[in-house]
Predict the structure of PaaI family thioesterase.
Amino acid sequence: MPATMPQCSYSELMGSEVLAFDPATETITMRFVVPDCFVTGRGGVQGGLVAGFLDEVMGRAHVEATSGAEAPLNLEIAMTLLKLIPPGPIMGKGRVIRRGKRAIFLEGELFDEAGATLMARATSTAIPTPVPPQI
């Protein structure tokens, strides 16, 4: 019999918190708390998990920009890791670069807790999709 995985929200696991959203620039500022278990033997967050933080901050920018009516379905994400991301608090900025009916272009960045050191950045091309009704 397969082991049962504990159920929790990915946002809870990432320690996600929306700090601010600027509707004029469609930019969101978020805080994350990186758990120790995300860190590899090199001392930084595993790369695929870094992509998850960037995806979250970019996607939330679009969700907020559409007042929760749409969420992005990624076609492509390009990511650049500039520095090892340690466990603990980090800051994220996400923004909608351009939004059309068939495609949206997003950008995201991760910074140290003070917001001074850029550690990773990403861009995404996505399809705007309606958010399904809550069950």
